[in-house]
Amino acid sequence: MTRAVALVAIGGEILVLRAERANARQAGPCSAEGCSRNAYARWYCVMHYNRRRRHGDVTVVLRHGRLHGPHYEQACQLRRDNPAMTLDAIGKQVGVSRERIRQLLKKAGLETHSTGNHRRAWRPCAMECGRLTLRTYCSRKCSAAAYHLRMSTVLTCTQCGKEFLRQNALIRTRAKNYLGKYTTTNVFCNKVCQGRYVGAHFGIGTPGHPAPQRKKEGNHASTN
Fold it and tell me: pTM score, two decimals?
């Protein structure tokens, strides 16, 4: 049989099936005993037609394996025995996803949420800002502040004595650049304190830096 003849034969069967379906729809109700649905094909409704096509018998009662299979019974039994068990725990024990467990429990009419308190409790923010959070920090601002604290070192200003934070990377960079050039260990919180310290220890009038003496007026007049 050539391909063209095969296609014609298949097309003829499709046309015959369509005609049978049309005749079945016009014939009235399903021919299966006790069924009042409208006929779909070969004088059977959709349900009985599928049963006849798949199993060869219209009296076969189909049981959906996904609904009434071993996963269904095991999941329902675990939910009845352990109300506080989470969907994830049931899914790992049964061998399916938690979404599938939720679907099975919903179809069975069982509770999909566990009765136990598995959620994280509210706790104060780690930055002690006074707000409650489910996480370690309440906001990105507190998280950034905590990161800044972890990456910084507490120093004491030589001039004013105030404690301040300085990044560890900046300390390492300055120590590397000033290695062998400066031996001082003074640190300052800002430029103002640095200027005051320099003025008090290395300014005019300090030891080693005497104030310039003004010329006398007589000497200045005699030169003129």
Answer: 0.36
| Closest residue by Cα to residue 100 from 108, 109, 91, 112 | 91
Cα–Cα distance measured from residue 93 to residue 106, given in angstroms and rounded to the nearest whole number:
18
Task: Give residue 1's pLDDT.
Answer: 46
Domain with 188, as residue range(s), is: 124-202
Dihedral sign from CA coordinates of 46, 48, 54, 60 = positive
Q: Which residues contact 176 (CB under 8 A, 6 or more apart)?
A: none
Is there a contact between 189 and 164 (Cβ–Cβ < 8 Å)? yes
> Does 70 lie in the same domain as 58?
no
- Structure tokens belonging to residue 189: 């919180």
Specify the DSSP class assigned to residue 121.
P
Cα separation, 174 vs 185, in Å, equals 12
Element housing 69 (H / E): none
For the chain, give me the number of helices (H) and strands (E)?
10, 4
Whether residues 128 and 92 share a domain: the answer is no
